[in-house]
Structures are given as C-alpha cells and as structure tokens.
Design a protein that fits this description.
Number of strands of chain A: 27
Oligomer: heterodimer
Shape of chain B: elongated
CATH architecture of the largest domain in chain B: Roll
Shape of chain A: globular
Number of domains of chain A: 3
Bound molecules: flavin-adenine dinucleotide, iron/sulfur cluster
Distance between the termini of chain A: 67 Å
Helix content of chain B: 10-25%
Strand order of the largest sheet of chain B: 8-5-6-10-9
CATH class of the largest domain in chain A: Alpha Beta
Radius of gyration of chain A: 23 Å
CATH class of the largest domain in chain B: Alpha Beta
Structural class of chain A: alpha/beta
Number of domains of chain B: 2
Order of helices and strands of chain B: EEEHEEEEHEEE
Helix content of chain A: 10-25%
CATH topology of the largest domain in chain B: CPE0013-like fold
Largest sheet of chain B: 5 strands, mixed
Structural class of chain B: alpha+beta
C-alpha cells in the first residue's frame, strides 16, 4: 500500500477546503488536498446562480466563478491535489494522524501532522421529515435536483411540488421554471418562509410561483413513479391538521428541508458533536478538542454565505500550518457561553493565549425585533451592540478585540428590548 | 406607492416606492443604501435581471456548461433568452469568462461561460465522473 507523508492534509475540496489548503501552503506547510469527486469546488460546482462573493470580492459571482478564483491559485501553488480520493477513516498516531484513502490506485495511507476537515454538509431527506407512502422515483432533495439540472442537463420532473422554503428550494423553483417545468407551489410547514426575502422575490414572485405557508406534504402516491402528493395545513406546532388534506397531481417532489454538517470522520475519531451546530466544538483557530485536528466551513456549522465559509477555511488552514510546524502552543481554554434567544455562538471555546482580533459567528434561535447583544468576561463588559432585527436564517459575524488574559468564560447574551424602548436610544 | 423587496444584496430591504401624483417626483422608502433607490426606480419602470443557466455541450467532460448574461437583461425577456440559449451547442475547451454569444437577443449584453469545460479524455479513465 502506498504511503504519503505531509504536514497538513485537507479533507474536502469545497470552498472551505480550498481556502484552508491555500492558507496552509502560504504559511509554509506542505499540503495535500483530498477530494472524493472528480473536480474541486464542492457544492459550488452546481450552484450556477449568482450572488456569491458579495462580501469578499464585492461582486455578484456564480458558484463556479467563485470557486474558480481559488482554483486558479491552487493550480499555481504547488499543493498536491488528489481527486477521486475518498477519505474513509482517520486514526490518531504518535506523531499526528493517519488517513485511510480510497483513490485511483486503490487504497493508500496518508500520514499528516495536522488535518483539516472541510467535508461540507448534506441535505435532510424525506425520511427525516416523516412523509408516508412508498418510495416512487421522483422524490428528491433540492441539491439532487440541482445536480441533475445543472451538471447532468436532465430535468427531474415536469410538474413539481417543492416542500420547504429554504434558499436552495427557492433557487430550484426558478431554475426548473426556466427549463420548462411547471412548479405548482412551494409549501412551508412553518408560518414564515425560511429563505431570504430576495430569493422569494426573484425566484417565486418573478415567475408567479405560489408560496403556501403553514402547509406541508404528508403522503406521496405512486409505486413506480410519483403520481401525486397529499398536502395538509399545519398548526402552530407544525402538526398536520386533520380534515385539511388535499391531493395534488405531480411527478416530482423536491425537498428543501435543511442541511446537516457531514461529520462521520470526526465521529470516528471519538469527537462529540455540539447538538446546536451539529459540528465539532472548536476554538478561535477552528481547532477541535483533538490537538492538530481542525474543522471549517459547513462541516462546522451550516453557513449561509460562502464568504464566511472561505474565511473559516483560512483560519483553520493557518492554525493547521502553525500546529504542523510546532508554532501552536497548547494553552488552557475558556468556554464561550450563549444566553437568551441565541441558537449558538462559534467558536465554543477560546484558547487563552495570544488573543488578537477574534471572529465570532452567531445565530438567533428565533426571530426577534430590536435586541441588545452583550459580551462579558467575568465582571467586564467587552461589547454592547444593538441589532435592529435578527432572524435565524441569517448568520451574524462579529469581530472582537479580546484582552490578553481571559480570567473567566466569555458570555454572550441577547436581550430583546422591551416594546417602546426603541425611542430612548 | 408599490411595495417590493430589493434583491441587490442579502439584506433584502423592503422598499416602498412610486411617483408622486405630479408624475415627476419619485419617492423611495425602506432602502438602507443608495443602490436600493436606483433599484426601485428601474424595478418600477423597466425591471432587469441577470440570467444564469446552462448550454448544451458536446465532446466535453459534462453534457452542459454553466453560463450567465454578462450584465442584466430585461426581466420580460428571460423566457425568450432561454429559448435562444436552448438552440446553442458549445464544444470544449471553454474557459470561464469566455463569450458564448455576443449581444444576446440584441439586448446589448453578451452570454459568457461561468465554468471551464475540458474535452473528454480519449481512451481510458472511463471511471472518471468529472462532476
Ligand atoms: C445543495 C446545496 C446548495 C447550496 N446552495 C448555496 C447557495 O446557493 N449559496 C450559498 O451561499 N450557499 C449554498 N449552499 C451552502 C454551501 O454548502 C456553502 O456555501 C459552501 O459551499 C460550503 O462549503 P464547504 O467547503 O464547507 O462544503 P462543500 O462545498 O459541500 O464541500 C465539501 C467537499 O468535501 C468533499 N468530501 C466530503 N467528505 C469527503 C471525504 N470523506 N473524503 C473526501 N472528500 C470529501 C465533498 O465531495 C465536497 O466536495 C448550498 C449547500 C448545498 C448542500
Ligand atoms: S437597499 Fe441596499 S442594503 Fe438594502 S437590499 Fe438593497 S442593496 Fe442591500
């Protein structure tokens, strides 16, 4: 079996992995980038719509164009890229990690001092949203539909129903319509759509596609091919209301019901996942609880802007290079705590050394109006910032200048303002 | 006054805009930046969109290639543009940014490739699914 030795192994060649590999390389580490598919770029390869890179490049790029900017740099960098290389497992060794890889040559082993996990996320499926019925063809996730249409040039159906109002579903509603399919409607079990307002406007309103909120799909009909779906109204707990069922003939049901980080490799190493982010816990360098193991991008937490995915990749790449070169001291850590209607704050802990400008990402757990975010360390208040509105689909980014010493846990708390208090500000 | 969403950035500001009864003065509310005001005006007079889609490819590693309009085209012409694009075929190699059609529909805007397309390798490597 072939053996390879490297400073840093990056698993996954999406935007997170590309940024991690480039940064680690720039920091002087020897890097191997491993990707299971035939081409680098990750999910961006199939996201042919525009809107990527507004934060980073100040331009509205399509997914392949955004990835392309990094791919050009990879080509010039001297990073060793292995495509069609699936990492099936990782073990710890005395000097770092050992990756088992299924590649063109068969099986090989890569020995690395540090590893960056940038394996992205996967989509939730029909099973996870309890839809009854057989398994006819024609039921697929929005990402699978996107793959068929944008990379294989195949239309998955002519009369489509979309369940879930996530952004990928909205984008696919427009895409399928442009390609000549009829999109009968987008059904959302919650009372509010979960996608961005601009996507509702430019993907649904522009094409007169109806959006039905508080409605869900409860059953699929058809044994070989999908023939129809049953749609019910939902109550405030998102449970179907009896007696409201309606049958809608269609040949494709497209699910856009959310993403979950892909973390089999981290689990295999015995790491526990944060139940809030579904990814490993990390510090400000994106280092997990295992020294030398880093995680970034959508594997860490589902991010809605690719610009932040690249940023987390750069942080992880720098950390991994420093670790591999013995420049990363193992310091004591303090936890980062989230209070109030905050879904989570990332990183979940801080290593107490060398604090500079630290980037935090957070998300509200429920929609709130004007609210004040406070960050405290013990008795000291480090930040107080007012937000006009916070919505769970929109991740927030915050940069904090931390003191050199952190004596206690860092506490993030979100306090919704009392109604009427706005005037006083 | 009409209400609609500004689609220029993820903020998605809710705009209220329209002409005053005098038919001259244009008023916009709800925008967080000047780009939103300009958007409101075009949206109410002659709305435009960037079109992103694919064209058929022959002899390449994939059967389709991602393309977009290099600028915005009238929203009313999106379907007509799709129709024109459906009649095209490209052959590799194509480099990201290359012009596929000059002046699409005579609207003064080019259609450009947004991805690279390499030729399929001759012989061997049949297992390579270059997706
Ligand atoms: C279907 C879909 C559509 C999306 N659309 C948008 C959008 O329109 N706009 C937006 O901003 N965001 C979108 N996202 C979110 C998008 O995932 C992120 O913006 C970004 O692409 C995440 O980058 P990443 O590098 O973390 O993951 P990915 O781009 O998913 O890359 C992960 C890579 O890791 C590889 N990999 C995984 N496991 C292994 C392994 N064991 N061995 C080797 N390689 C492995 C995968 O093949 C993949 O190439 C979408 C996500 C999905 C799933
Ligand atoms: S008005 Fe400005 S900030 Fe608001 S959505 Fe439009 S471009 Fe973005």
């Amino acid at each position: 079996m072939k053996q390879y030795y490297t400073d840093v192994a990056v698993v996954g060649g999406g935007p997170a992995g590309l940024a991690a590999a480039l940064t680690a390389n720039r920091e002087g580490a020897q890097v191997m980038l491993l990707e299971r598919e035939g081409r680098l770029g990750g999910i961006l390869k199939q996201c042919i719509h525009d809107g990527f890179g507004l934060v980073r490049f100040g331009e509205k790029l399509t997914g392949p164009e955004y990835a392309g900017r990094f791919l050009d740099q990879i080509a010039e960098s001297g990073i060793e890229v292995m495509t069609l290389a699936f990492v099936s497992g990782i073990d710890r060794t005395g000097s770092g990690y050992q990756l088992r890889v299924i590649c063109r040559e068969g099986l090989c082993v890569i020995h690395a001092r540090a590893v960056v996990l940038s394996t992205g996320c996967r989509e939730r499926t029909a099973k996870q949203v309890s839809i009854h019925g057989d398994r006819p063809s024609g039921v697929l996730t929005a990402g699978a539909a996107q793959h068929y249409v944008n990379l294989l040039g195949q239309l998955p159906g002519r009369r489509c129903v979309i369940l879930g109002s996530g952004d990928i579903g909205l984008i696919m509603a427009r895409r399928l319509t442009l390609e000549g399919a009829e999109v009968l409607g987008v059904y959302e079990a919650k009372p509010e759509p979960s996608g961005l307002a601009r996507n509702i406007a430019q993907c649904l309103t522009d094409f007169d596609i109806p959006l039905y909120t508080s409605r869900t799909v409860t059953r699929v009909f058809g044994s070989e091919r999908l023939e129809a779906v049953e749609v019910c109204e939902t109550d405030s707990q998102m449970r179907p209301v009896p007696g409201t069922a309606q049958r809608i003939p269609c040949d494709a049901l497209i699910l856009s019901v959310g993403l979950i980080p892909e973390n089999e490799l981290a689990l295999g190493l015995g790491l526990s996942l944060d139940p809030r982010t579904k990814g490993p816990q990390c510090d400000q360098r994106m280092q997990t609880e295992l020294p030398g193991l880093f995680c970034c991008g959508n594997a860490l937490h589902v991010s809605d802007l690719v610009d932040y995915v690249s940023e987390s990749g750069e942080t992880a790449g720098r950390g991994a290079a420093d670790f591999a070169r013995g420049r990363l001291p193992q310091a004591k850590t303090v936890p980062v705590q989230a209070e109030g209607p905050l879904a989570y704050v990332l990183p979940q802990r801080l290593s107490a050394d060398n604090q500079e400008k630290t980037v935090f990402y957070f998300r509200a757990g429920k929609s709130c109006g004007p609210a004040v975010l406070r960050v405290r360390c013990g008795e000291t208040e480090l930040l107080r910032r007012r937000y006009r509105a916070l919505r769970p689909p929109e991740m927030e980014r915050l940069v904090l200048e931390l003191p050199a010493e952190l004596p206690a846990a860092l506490q993030f708390s979100l306090e919704p303002e009392e109604p009427g208090e706005e005037g006083k500000q | 006054m009409k209400e609609f969403v500004c689609i220029l950035c993820p903020n998605g500001c809710r705009l209220r805009a329209g002409f005053e009864p005098d038919g001259e003065t244009f008023r916009v509310e709800g925008n967080s930046c000047p780009r939103g005001a300009a958007f409101a005006r075009t949206e109410l007079t002659a709305p435009v969109r960037t079109l992103t889609t694919t064209v058929r490819a022959v002899g390449g590693e994939r059967p389709v290639l991602a393309v977009r309009t290099a600028g915005e085209i009238p929203r009313a012409k999106l379907m007509e543009a799709m129709e024109a694009i459906s009649r095209l075929t490209v052959r590799p190699p194509v480099r990201r940014g290359e012009v596929i059609v000059h002046n699409l529909l005579g609207a003064g805007i080019d259609l450009i490739a947004t991805d690279d397309l390499a030729a399929v390798l001759q012989g061997g490597l049949k297992d390579v699914t270059p997706l």
